[in-house]
Design goal:
Layout: H1 2-19, E1 23-39, E2 42-60, E3 63-69, H2 74-90, H3 125-140, E4 145-163, E5 168-184, E6 191-199, H4 208-221, E7 231-237, H5 239-252, H6 255-260, E8 280-282, E9 305-309, E10 312-313, H7 320-325, E11 334-335, E12 343-344, E13 349-351, H8 358-365, E14 368-379, E15 385-396, E16 399-412, H9 413-418, E17 421-422, E18 432-433, E19 437-445
Parallel strand pairs: 7-14, 13-18
Antiparallel strand pairs: 1-2, 1-4, 2-3, 4-5, 5-6, 7-19, 8-9, 8-13, 9-10, 11-12, 14-15, 15-16, 16-19, 17-19
Helix pairs in contact: 1-2, 3-4
Length: 447
């Protein structure tokens, strides 16, 4: 499969050169996905998709254009290259556009060490449906659950990238998933919650019984939710939602935002952005993790790096283009689709764990809001002002007393992140590992 993709990228580069491109890179992607969805015990959707797609980016000086297709014929590839060159000649000039220097390119990576592809055979639709029925049965075994929606899926994807600077490389990855949404109550008192798991290797996927039971427990716990009183309280973000806080930080240190001057952390390089006990690490080489990769979308070798060390912001997230705009070096964080140019993006992020358990933080927060789900988002990217709808549980004197919903939490991200207190409950199999986090005071708008 990979050799076939390699041949496709070689054909694209040859066609681009023939059409007059000064430089080019090409991407070929093939994949298979299979998904089964059940609702109220009945098969709602069974879907299988197979596709091979190609993408070509041509460069004419400081001008570029991207084109893509799913037709792999020679006629289409030649027409694609000619169209891309014509488009590039009319594109705006940007002096920071360009391929990597050959000396920067990744070489001799050990793909086997990444363990991105499960050697087990693709599961059948029958096997996925059986998973759905098992997770559904586990949900319904808990009294009070009135309805269940279950989903199981499998995907396999291969990618190959090549460029006229001499780079050529590819890899494949697989994924297996299972989830359930459980409903309880009725009418305006209906509540729901979910549980789901995804793994690179099918043998690592937890049992359906535990997934279903957890979804049911979470849904039942939400019955009788009320609005909290407006005020300022400690807010504890559950591990399921705490990663969103770090997601806002990652967006703010993305090179594209920094180059535009449109980030609330645009002047924060070398400054404290997290407590001194915390570091934020990117490691694209973790085995069996969905975000791992040996090289980025521009062919540069990926590596473990610190974004924040002991609370100090020490680096932006850069591809070649944003690095040139900022007079820096790429951090090998380029990502792209077949129809778009490279842009910076992180993978496999880990925030330092704390020493306390989730129970310890609940005890220590006294009276406040334990957030387990969030909806909507109003984030000012230039000031860091933060406001989100949330639901979860009220904590009184360190003990969960009742569920709450229909409220909003607000603050400023720069101040919030400096006051993070992490638990020790981040899960190792996740690409983004962020534990539950306590912030000692936020504005809570309720009744």
């Amino acid at each position: 499969m990979t050799a076939s993709l390699e041949t496709l990228t070689a054909r694209l580069l040859k066609a681009a050169s023939k059409a007059g491109a000064e430089a080019a890179d090409a991407m070929a992607v093939t994949g298979t996905s299979l998904s089964i969805n059940l609702r109220v015990g009945k098969l709602e959707q069974a879907e299988r998709a197979e596709a091979t797609e190609i993408g070509l980016r041509v460069l004419m000086g400081g001008r570029q254009a991207c084109v893509s297709a799913s037709d792999l014929s020679n006629h289409t590839i030649e027409a694609l290259a000619e169209r891309a060159v014509a488009m590039a000649r009319e594109a705006p000039n940007n002096a920071t556009i360009g391929l990597a220097d050959p000396s920067q390119l990744a070489r001799n990576w050990d793909l086997a060490s990444f363990e991105l592809t499960d050697p087990a055979p693709e599961p059948s639709a029958v096997a996925l449906e059986q998973d759905c029925r098992e997770v559904e049965a586990a949900c319904l075994s808990r009294s009070g659950i009135t309805q269940v929606e279950s989903s199981a899926g499998y995907s396999s994807r291969s990618i190959h990238i090549a460029a006229t600077n001499g780079f050529s490389g590819g890899y494949a990855r697989t994924s297996r998933s299972l989830s359930a949404v459980a409903f309880t109550g009725s009418g305006t008192n209906m509540e729901r919650d979910w549980s789901g798991e995804s793994r690179t290797y099918q043998s690592d996927l937890p049992a359906a019984k535990g997934i279903g039971e957890l979804a049911a427990e979470r849904a039942i716990a939400r019955l009788g939710a009320t609005k909290p009183k407006t005020g300022t309280y400690p807010v504890l973000f559950d591990e399921r939602v705490a990663s969103s806080l770090i997601g806002h930080l990652l967006s703010a240190i993305n090179g594209a935002a920094i180059a535009r001057g449109a980030s609330w952390l645009r002047d924060a390089l070398g400054q404290q952005v997290l407590p001194t006990t915390l570091s934020l690490i990117e490691n694209p080489h973790r085995p069996r993790i969905g975000g791992s990769r040996p090289f980025d979308a521009e062919g540069l070798p990926t590596a473990r790096r610190a974004l924040v060390k002991n609370g100090i912001l020490i680096g932006w997230t850069l591809d070649l283009g944003t690095a040139r705009k900022l007079s820096m070096q790429s951090t090998a964080n380029a990502s792209r689709s077949i129809s778009s140019p490279p842009s910076p993006s992180t993978s496999n992020i880990s925030l330092s764990r704390g020493r306390q358990s989730l129970s310890d933080l609940l005890r220590d927060m006294g009276t406040g809001f334990y957030v387990t789900s969030m909806i909507g988002s109003t984030i000012n990217p230039t000031t860091g002002d933060y406001s989100r709808g949330a639901a979860g549980f009220w904590v009184q004197n360190g003990t969960i007393t009742h569920p709450i919903n229909e409220c909003t939490i607000a603050g400023n991200l720069r101040d919030m992140l400096l006051r993070l207190i992490p638990a020790n409950d981040s899960r190792d199999h996740l690409s983004t590992r962020v534990p539950s986090c306590l912030i000692d005071g936020m504005t809570l708008a309720g009744s």
